[in-house]
Design brief:
39% of the residues lie in helices and 20% in strands. With 307 residues, it is α+β, with helices and mostly antiparallel strands. The protein folds into two domains: 42-83 and 96-127; 142-302, Cupredoxins -  blue copper proteins (Immunoglobulin-like), CATH 2.60.40. The strands form two sheets. A six-stranded mixed beta sheet has the order 8-5-1-2-3-11. A five-stranded mixed beta sheet has the order 4-10-9-6-7. Strand 2 and strand 3 form a beta hairpin.
């Protein structure tokens, strides 16, 4: 079945040793290459917000190359030409102030910083988490309420009266509006291929808009350290075609309900072995979690004023 080949002496990885500088060079070279190979980052955008962030990242990187490339090329050339052992390099210690040289040295970076500031400011405004995303068919956005827990995310769909934990199912092409709060420590939700990152804090409500332009599975995570389960706090966003999304809704409604008792169990510190689906949700759960901490803040504020 297999062609016969003569045995060639080989060296195992254990037999190859690298010096410390070589290991450092390999590390700094492999890191950006590994980031480019990964298909779950912003470079593989699947939504308008992520596409805007990718464009801004590439534009600023190219503009910075206008400064970095001459430095990385010119510095070694200067060091090599004016090395001590090169007799042909002229040594001219006498020099005077030069306006053209000063303008060239400081003017170029100043203009570059101004351009970078303008590009970053306009892109940040366009990709603001509070700015709505256009829907492909002109429909209103799908509202999803998110409650951050230790160490999981609960996603509530109030329009369809269902909920999921550690997974979010949305229709592809539909604008989605996330309203976030926390029933635990401060956390930060991000789905790199679909949108930006926003914090979730107890007693506060934040917003994040996104849209999946095509069906697929898009990983999300918490980027704010919140204890020993932080590294395992991941979830998946499943973008489905309209027909598949309708079938999933029908199946989800058959799942057990998320009542007060099941929510207490879900809110306990810990990770889930697998995502969960709840066929119904106690009305006003998101608002009750939000109000619980807001009322506590008001009580603390009143106590501080009268103490």
């Amino acid at each position: 079945m297999f062609a016969h080949h003569s045995r060639v002496p080989t060296r195992s990885a254990a037999d190859i040793s690298l010096s410390a500088p070589a290991k450092f060079a390999v590390a700094i070279t492999a890191a950006p290459l590994a980031a480019c190979v990964r298909d779950d980052g912003v470079l593989h955008a699947a939504g308008p917000i992520a596409a805007l962030q990718r464009t801004t990242l590439l534009e600023t990187s190219l503009m910075l190359c206008a400064v970095l490339v001459p430095i990385f090329i010119g510095l070694p050339l200067v060091l090599w030409r004016y090395r001590r052992g090169n007799p042909r390099a002229a040594y001219r210690p006498d020099w005077t102030f030069s306006w053209p040289l000063e303008i060239a040295i400081w003017g170029g970076p100043a203009v570059l910083v101004a351009i970078l500031a303008f590009v970053t400011f306009t892109a940040t405004q366009a990709a603001s988490p509070w700015r709505s995303v256009d829907d492909a068919a002109g429909r209103p956005p799908l509202d999803i309420q998110v409650i951050a827990l230790d160490w999981k995310f609960l996603f509530i769909d109030p329009a369809h009266h269902i909920a999921t934990a550690d997974a979010l199912v949305i229709p592809a092409g539909r604008a989605v509006r996330l309203s976030l709060t926390s029933d635990a420590t401060m956390q930060a939700l991000i789905v790199p291929r679909l949108g930006g990152q926003i914090y979730a804090m107890a007693g506060m409500e934040t917003r994040l808009h996104m849209r999946a332009d095509r069906p697929g599975d898009y990983p999300g995570a918490n980027t704010q350290y919140n204890g020993p389960g932080f590294a395992a706090e991941h979830f998946m966003v499943h973008a489905l075609r309209p027909a598949a999304y309708a079938r999933w809704l029908g199946q989800a409604r058959k799942a057990p309900p998320l009542d007060a008792a099941s929510y207490v169990r879900l809110a306990r510190k810990g990770t889930l072995d697998a995502p969960r689906v709840y066929g119904s949700v106690a009305p006003g759960l998101f608002a009750s979690v939000l109000a619980r901490y807001r009322h506590a803040q008001y009580r603390h504020a009143s106590y501080g004023e009268t103490r």
